[in-house]
Structure formats: structure tokens, C-alpha cells
Amino acid sequence: MRLTMRTSLALRTLMFCAVNEGRIVQRHEISTTCDASENHLAQVIHLLARNGYLKTRRGRHGGLALGRPAAEITVGQVFRSFEAPLPFADCWHGSERDCPLKGACRLSCVLKEAMDAFYARLDQTTLADLVGDNSELEHLLRAA
């Protein structure tokens, strides 16, 4: 299993906004700090805003900020927004291929339980948990 770049950028963007709470931040600040393409970041920001994690403002004094308190955003929610549509195994529902072991294989049940445990753990972690009392991260993400 591997975290996609979109999910990684989403979490970096949210952490950047959380560290700079109370301030409208610019996309290019996040792009520079997180070493990300502004075009790729724009797509991630759009999805974060559409899901209510960010508020965006256009114009000369525009930018973005958290759409709700960091303590109300769980890592699990963000992962589901970006990763959930991708099935972990090709035998899961919605697959274009039909597994020849379907119906007899117990691996899919084990994988489902593992994924449920994975997301349950992520649901216990908020954005506030990631940035709170983390001076090293704050130093890296604090906007000038």
C-alpha cells in the first residue's frame, strides 16, 4: 500500500493551513514550502474546498484557510476523500475482472478487516493532533 501524491499534498496543505491558523495563505507559499507543483496543488485544493476542509477566496487578497477547526478534521476523513474510490484488491466490488477464487477465498475478508482497522486508526487522529505541540513542524511550515 502506498500513499498517493494527492493525499500527501492534501495533508501537507491542511497542516500548512493549521500551522498558519488565522491567516489567509497563498497557494504558492504551500507549493514552495512543500515542494509541489502549483497546478497539482490547485487540483488538491479544489477537492479539499469542495469537501469543506478549506475555504478559498479569489482575488488580490485571496488565498485559503481551514474550512473548519483542525480538531474537527480527521486524517481518516481526508484519506477517504482522496483514497476511498480506489479498491485495495482487484477482487473487491466494482472490479472489472472477476477473480477465479471468488466465493472461496478468505483473503478478501482479511484485507477488508485490515483496511477497516487502518481507517479506524486514522479516524482517531485529527489535524490538530498532527500539528499541536509540534514545534519542528511549525518551524518548517510557518509562513513568513
- Would you tell me the overall average pLDDT? 90
Largest sheet strand order = 1-2
Low-confidence stretches: none
* Termini gap: 36 Å
CATH class: Mainly Alpha
Q: What does the main sheet amount to?
A: 2 strands, antiparallel
- Report Rg: 18 Å
The topology string of helices and strands comes to: HHHEEHHHH
| Assigned CATH architecture | Orthogonal Bundle
Helix content: 40-55%
* SS elements, strand count: 2
The computed structural class is mainly alpha
Q: What fraction strand?
A: 5-15%
How is the CATH topology named? Arc Repressor Mutant, subunit A
Number of helices: 7
Number of domains: 1
- CATH superfamily placement: Winged helix-like DNA-binding domain superfamily/Winged helix DNA-binding domain
Shape: elongated
Description:
This protein has 144 residues and is mainly alpha-helical. The chain has a single domain (5-141), classed as Orthogonal Bundle (Arc Repressor Mutant, subunit A), CATH 1.10.10.10. The chain has helices at residues 5-19, 27-34, 38-50, 75-83, 107-123, 127-131, 135-141, and strands spanning 54-57, 63-66. Strands 1-2 form a two-stranded antiparallel ribbon. Helix 4 crosses helix 5 (107-123). The longest helix is centred in the last third of the chain and has 17 residues, at 107-123. It starts with a helix and ends with a helix.
